[in-house]
């Protein structure tokens, strides 16, 4: 594996890497806003049926001196918690309810009807949302979660397509297109007049968001030396944490969903322009045999890192000689089937997908339960990011001390135990239950950081993005299934917690079966993976021999 030596010559951690991480992490903040957008753009405000006595000035004049509360009582029946019903109204005003000895206990005997003339919404928190624009309430309330599911499906499909495309076309090319697609489709979604088209353009945004997330991480990994990879990927993960804080802050200031959609999409036009400055991954270029282009990118990075003299010593012949094994190994075309049919890669693929599935499954399940904390929606969104920050920074230290495997395992087992412990916490001890939930959520943030680094180091360059795409698919599959598990609470409040906890613990234990990759150079070919396995077996055998001779 000669590329690490080439990277050290041009600079594996220098001025270029600093500029690159700024250029790639800044868009991640707005990617998080796209992912979390419908917490605000699809918020459901308080609402009731439109009724003439309250909402028609001519009819109000015939109501005499009755106040708004009295008019509401005779126009709309009470719903749950004695609040005005959100989906039914009286066919005719129930004037008898104004009589002193009359109560509304028998309102169901009165003739009611659905909200034939539409709804009146409370605009005190949001000026407009997609719910108020297209009346996604009552009989149409299922359309709101459907929009979020379509978005998650877009990321799932985008991960599969963009991962494969990146291994074929290059990381930077797919990233540039993804920026443009998010910008155009996100901006278009802000002006869409009908709900089905809105869902379509949000799907296209999600499709491209998958390309942004995967290729940003891959470019940082492949342009950074082994010792600096944990730092770079932790910075990448922190972009998501700060993105939660940014999303809550922007949504607090922009209460109109169309303007909010526009605000979080417009920056991607700028990112599309600046992405042309980003170099393609030289590691990928050399691995697929594009030596001339790889040389140009290496020399360009050397100049930025103020190592132009070292870059000028590189030639096509030097690269071909240094990368001879990788170039010859590339003659065998790698594909998705290679991941599934190669014994060493197959185990890595399945366990990595399990870890990513567990993260998405448990995180979204817990995030949905955070609403029980009673915070307002803006503060809640920022709280998610604030909790994430210290855990992800701590994971950087653990990655260096414990290694990838133990860090990945512990960051999944710990939230599992926190969730399972919550089953035993009495309901009156809310502070303890909330603390365990916050600790579990923060640990999942660390699990995301570990998984991002670990999964990128486990797979060779020729298949790295394909493998990462599969992991992203597993994550989004978990994200879709996680909230559905909450339906089990109808059979017992502890059932969803049991499922989340067991899945998290089992995936953490499974991570112990993966090989350690701490301080190892990134593998470029399948042969590199096989050599790592051979070295491990040889090392273990040698250790056993030493132990046996010591006993003698």
From TrEMBL:
Keywords: Membrane, Transmembrane, Transmembrane helix. PROSITE patterns: MFS (PS50850). CDD domains: MFS_OAT (cd17374). GO terms for molecular function: transmembrane transporter activity. InterPro entries: MFS_dom, MFS_sugar_transport-like, MFS_trans_sf. One of its GO terms (biological process) is organic anion transport. This is Slc22a12 protein. It comes from Phodopus roborovskii (Roborovski's desert hamster). The gene is Slc22a12.
